Amino acid sequence: MNRAKKEQLGRVRLIESDDTEKIERAVLKPPVRAKLKKRAYIRPAGPYRIKQSFVKQLKLTDEGQQLFYDSDLSGFGLLVGKNTKSYFAEHLIRGSGGKKRRIKIGRDGLLTAYQARERAKRLILRMSDGDDPREEQLRQVEAARKAEAEQITLKQLCKEFCSDRESRLKANTLLEYRRFIESDFRSYKLDSWEE
Predict the structure, then answer these.
(1) Does this model's pTM top 0.85?
(2) 128 CB contacts (<8 Å, ≥6 apart)?
(3) What is the mean pLDDT of the chain?
(4) Could you tell me if 123 and 176 lie in one domain?
């Protein structure tokens, strides 16, 4: 492995001393471990340009997670775990009193590094404008739950079905329909569906 590649990986750094004009080799300290939300995050030393070739050369970790921040786009990064590699965007939300959000963009393999970078730019811009993407996600989930709750129930559907056909069908046919509905949907507890 050549010197430039070792520098890029953060294992070895070249230091030029001022007095002797010599170049000395210095081994960097091991990566800093920080505990966040009961997970061990490792931040390897060195700036990284997150490109597809860089992502491919990284191996999955045995324990904990590694965070690699991009040197060109502040707030864009790659999280390498035991099973996957995921892209994320991280930024302070303007006007929130210092709230910092890390939003998952997507997994490597589903997105390329270029696509993830473009999405990260848009997310970081929104967060710097004061929008919180996580709150928007929560609003969308809540709206979906509300729409689901407002949908017609099976009991209402059975009532509508029989009431719409009451005038056109004979009494025995209507009675058979109700019997079939009650027997087929017994597990849905529709025995008192006719109020």
Answers:
(1) no
(2) 91, 92, 94
(3) 77
(4) no
